[in-house]
Write a structure and sequence with these properties.
The complex is a heterodimer of chains A (226) and B (302).
Chain A: H1 6-19, H2 21-74, H3 78-82, H4 88-114, H5 127-152, H6 155-177, H7 180-183, H8 195-220
Helix pairs in contact in A: 1-4, 2-4, 2-5, 2-6, 4-5, 4-8, 5-6, 5-8
Chain B: E1 2-12, E2 17-26, E3 30-34, H1 41-49, E4 56-61, E5 64-66, H2 70-74, E6 77-81, H3 92-102, H4 108-117, H5 131-143, E7 149-153, H6 161-174, E8 181-186, H7 189-195, E9 198-203, E10 206-212, H8 213-219, E11 221-226, E12 239-245, E13 248-253, H9 258-266, E14 270-276, H10 279-291
Parallel strand pairs in B: 3-8, 3-9, 6-7, 7-8
Antiparallel strand pairs in B: 1-2, 1-4, 4-5, 9-10, 11-13, 11-14, 12-13
Classes of the chains: A mainly alpha (226), B alpha/beta (302).
C-alpha cells in the first residue's frame, strides 16, 4: 500500500475521527463505568459489569464500522469521497486506519484499565490470561466485522458479520474455557501463562493480521467502486 | 488539446454493456451527454472518473491515463453525480473546511460568493436542506475547487427552473476561463442546448452521435410533403423517420441539404414546409433510429 496519498488519507482519517468523536467517548465512558462497577461492587455486580464491559467493546466496534463504512455507502456519501484525488487504496488505508485507531484506542485503554480488577482480591489472578484471550477475541470479532464492511460494503453482509461475530465469539470463548490448561489455572491465585494461553493468543493476533491483509488484498482487486 | 479522450471503451455487465465508446472533449468546451435512462451515461462518466475500470479501450483525462492515474487526474476534476450526497448530519461548513484542507487551489472567496449566490447557509446541516439546496451545495463543492474539468452527471435533475438557471449560469461563468472544460449528462435538452458546444447521444451503451451543436441543429429537418397515391419515397439514408396520413407525408431527415427537397420534387412530391428540429426532437429521433438498428447519423463519433 505504498501507492497512497498521505495528505488525503490523513484528512479522510480526521474526518472519520471527527464523525465518531462523540459516540466513541460515550463507549469509552461506558467501559470505564463497567470497570468501576466491578471494582466497587465486586461479586454482587460482577456479571452485570462484565456483560456491560463486553457490550461496550463490541458495540464500539460495530458502531464505528457501520457508521464510517456501511452508512457512508448507504447514505450515498461515497461518490463524494471518491470524487476527491483518492484511489481505492487510499480509501482502504483511510478506512482501516481510522477504524483501527478509533476502536483500537478504546479497546486498548479499556482492556488495560480492566486489569485494575485484579488489584487486591476482587478476582483471582489466574483469570488474567483467560481475560486476555477474551479481550483479543473481542478485537478479532471487531476486525472480522470491519473487514466484511470494507470489502462487501453492503448492509446485509455487515449485519451477517455482526451476528456471526457475536455468536461465534461466545461459542469460541466457551470452547476455549473447556481446555484443560485453562480450566486448571483460571481460578488460581497466580497468573499462569502456559503454552495453551500463548498459542491461542498468538493465533488470534495472527488472525487479526491476516484479516487486515486480506482486506487490503481484496480491495486492490476491485475494478468497480461505486 | 483534449480534456477527455475515450477510445474504444468497453465495459460489460450481465445485462448491459458499453460498446466501443469513443468520446473526445476538446479543452475549453462544454459537451452535453444525452441519453435515455439506462443508456450508459453514468457508467461512461464513472469510467472517465476512474471509479469503474473499463474492460477494454483507453481513457485519457487531462493527459492522465485512467484508471491508473486517477489520483493525479482528480486533483483537477470537479465531479458531481445525481446520486452523490454530502454527509447529512454535518453542516455545509464542515464539508467546505474538509475540502479546503485537501485542495490547494480551493478558492475560499469564490466559495463564499457561491454560498451567497446559491442562497446557502454554511451553518445548516445537510439533512435540513431541500433537494435543490443539496444539489447546489454539491455543485458548490466542485466549483470552488477551481478544477480544469467539471464532470457532472445529471446536475440539474430535480431542480426548479430558478435553481436550474442558477446552476447553468454558473457553468457558463466557469467557461469564461477558456482552459476549463465541462462534460455533463442530462435529460434536460434545453440545458444542453443552452450551454453545450458539442453534443453526444448515447443509447443502449453505444454512442449514436457526437457532433458540435450547430452541426446537429443545422443537419436535422422535418420535411412536410403532399404526395399522390403513386408516390414512392426515394431510397435515402438520411431519412430517419417517415409518417404518412393520406396524401400528407412527414419526413425526419438527419443530413438535410438544399438538394434534398429538389430530389423529392423530382420524385413527384410537393414540399410544403421544411422545419428545424429542437434538440429534444433530434434526441428522440436519434434514439428511435438507433433502436431501429439504423445508423441514422453519420456524425463524428470519434
Amino acid at each position: 500500500m505504498s501507492d497512497t496519498s498521505p495528505t488525503i488519507v490523513r484528512e479522510l482519517i480526521k474526518k472519520d475521527l471527527q464523525i465518531m468523536k462523540v459516540p466513541s467517548l460515550c463507549y469509552w465512558l461506558g467501559g470505564i463505568g463497567a470497570i468501576l462497577l466491578a471494582v466497587f461492587f465486586g461479586d454482587a455486580a460482577g456479571t452485570i459489569a462484565f456483560i456491560l464491559f463486553v457490550s461496550v467493546l463490541f458495540g464500539a466496534g460495530v458502531h464505528a464500522a457501520m457508521q464510517t463504512v456501511t452508512e457512508e455507502r448507504r447514505e450515498q456519501n461515497l461518490p463524494f469521497i471518491m470524487s476527491l484525488p483518492v484511489t481505492i487504496s487510499d480509501y482502504t488505508v483511510a478506512k482501516m486506519s481510522a477504524n483501527l485507531m478509533l476502536v483500537g484506542t478504546i479497546w486498548l485503554t479499556l482492556s488495560a484499565a480492566s486489569y485494575v480488577i485484579f488489584i487486591g482480591d476482587v478476582m483471582p489472578k489466574g483469570t488474567i490470561p483467560f481475560l486476555t484471550i477474551i479481550l483479543v477475541a473481542i478485537f478479532l470479532a471487531y476486525v472480522i466485522i470491519l473487514a466484511t464492511t470494507v470489502v462487501f460494503q453492503g448492509l446485509a453482509p455487515a449485519i451477517i458479520a455482526v451476528v456471526a461475530a457475536n455468536l461465534g465469539t461466545q461459542a469460541y470463548i466457551w470452547w476455549i474455557s473447556e481446555f484443560h490448561d485453562v480450566r486448571s489455572t483460571v481460578n488460581g491465585m497466580e497468573a499462569v501463562w502456559n503454552n495453551t494461553y500463548l498459542t491461542v493468543i498468538g493465533l488470534q493476533v495472527a488472525a487479526v493480521c491476516a484479516l487486515i491483509a486480506f482486506t487490503f488484498y481484496s480491495q486492490s482487486k476491485k475494478t468497480e467502486f461505486l | 488539446m483534449l480534456a477527455i479522450k475515450c477510445s474504444n471503451v468497453r465495459k460489460t455487465y450481465p445485462h448491459f454493456a458499453l460498446q466501443d465508446v469513443n468520446l473526445n472533449l476538446a479543452e475549453g468546451t462544454v459537451m452535453g451527454f444525452v441519453g435515455p435512462n439506462g443508456a450508459g451515461k453514468s457508467t461512461t462518466l464513472r469510467v472517465i472518473m476512474g471509479l469503474v475500470h473499463q474492460d477494454a479501450g483507453s481513457v485519457q483525462v487531462l493527459g492522465h491515463s485512467m484508471p491508473a492515474a486517477q489520483r493525479a487526474a482528480k486533483w483537477d476534476i470537479g465531479f458531481v453525480s445525481e446520486d452523490m450526497r454530502l454527509y447529512s448530519h454535518r453542516t455545509l461548513g464542515f464539508h467546505l473546511e474538509f475540502l479546503e484542507q485537501i485542495f490547494p487551489k480551493w478558492d475560499k472567496p469564490y466559495a463564499a460568493e457561491l454560498l451567497r449566490r446559491f442562497d446557502l447557509n454554511p451553518e445548516q446541516k445537510l439533512k435540513g436542506l431541500s433537494h435543490g439546496q443539496r444539489v447546489k451545495a454539491a455543485l458548490l463543492t466542485a466549483f470552488a475547487r477551481k478544477p480544469r474539468l467539471l464532470v457532472f452527471d445529471e446536475p440539474t435533475t430535480g431542480l426548479d427552473p430558478v435553481a436550474r438557471k442558477l446552476v447553468v449560469d454558473e457553468m457558463m461563468r466557469v467557461m469564461e476561463d477558456e482552459s476549463r472544460s465541462i462534460l455533463f449528462s442530462s435529460h434536460n435538452t434545453l440545458d444542453v442546448e443552452q450551454i453545450s458546444d458539442s453534443i453526444t447521444f448515447i443509447n443502449q451503451g453505444e454512442i449514436v452521435a457526437s457532433q458540435d451543436k450547430e452541426s446537429f441543429l443545422d443537419a436535422w429537418r422535418r420535411v412536410r410533403l403532399v404526395v399522390d397515391d403513386t408516390f414512392t419515397l426515394p431510397n435515402c439514408n438520411s431519412i430517419v423517420k417517415t409518417q404518412r396520413a393520406g396524401h400528407q407525408m412527414v419526413l425526419t431527415v438527419s443530413d438535410y441539404n438544399e438538394g434534398f427537397a429538389a430530389h423529392l420534387t423530382q420524385a413527384g412530391a410537393s414540399v410544403t414546409d421544411v422545419e428545424r428540429l429542437t434538440l429534444e426532437e433530434i434526441f428522440i429521433a436519434s434514439v428511435e433510429a438507433s433502436q431501429a438498428g439504423q445508423h441514422a447519423i453519420q456524425g463524428e463519433a470519434a
